[in-house]
Amino acid sequence: MLKKMIYLLVNKVVRQARDYQLKNRLKELGLSETINLYNCDVFGNVSIGECTYIASYSVLSSGEKSRVSIGKHCAIGSHVTITSKGHDLQYPTSDEEHSIHKHVEADTTVGDYVWIGDHVFIKHGVTVGNYAVIGANAVVTKDVKPFEVVGGVPARHIRFNTEHYRYKA
């Protein structure tokens, strides 16, 4: 009985500490308290809409001149990377003659009510339409239309989610 009470008390303290950390992190990033960030990293010029959750070990990062925008009510899985910058193929790495490598930047936008599975990579310059679904392990290199379901490497059209209650509207 005593072990169970201690277990429940410790769990409550851990939950409160996590909630406190999350509120401080959201305030630091200037984001709404309705957002849930579970142990993920956010770098640069990133905006996230209300009631969106992003699972563990995901990374959102922007370039200096670009941004990453995530819509409202999105469900983003774990180990997802969404970026607005990449390496320029002209100078992708430094070498003996060039001490720096170049980046290319383009805004990346994820619409509202989007579901993104685990281990997805979304490349710079991509726009994901509202109500889209991106299957686990996909690499998204091109725009995704509203209500479109995509998956694979590179991500390809699978079908449109005609089952969604808002599809016909």
Could you please describe the fold and organization of this structure?
This protein has 169 residues and is of the alpha/beta class. The protein has two domains: 1-30; 34-160, UDP N-Acetylglucosamine Acyltransferase, domain 1. The protein has one helix at 2-29; strands at 36-37, 41-43, 46-48, 53-54, 59-61, 68-70, 75-76, 81-83, 85-87, 103-105, 108-110, 115-116, 121-122, 127-128, 133-134, 139-140, 148-151, 156-160. The termini are far apart. The mean pLDDT is 87.
Q: How confident overall, as mean pLDDT?
A: 87
Rg over CA atoms, rounded to whole Å, is 19 Å
Strand numbers in spatial order across the main sheet: 1-4-7-12-15-17-18
Question: Unreliable stretches, pLDDT < 50, 5 or more residues?
Answer: none
The biggest beta sheet is recorded as: 7 strands, mixed
- Tell me the CATH superfamily of the largest domain: Hexapeptide repeat proteins
In CATH terms, what is the architecture of the largest domain?
A: 3 Solenoid
Give the gist of this structure.
The chain is an alpha/beta fold and 169 residues long.
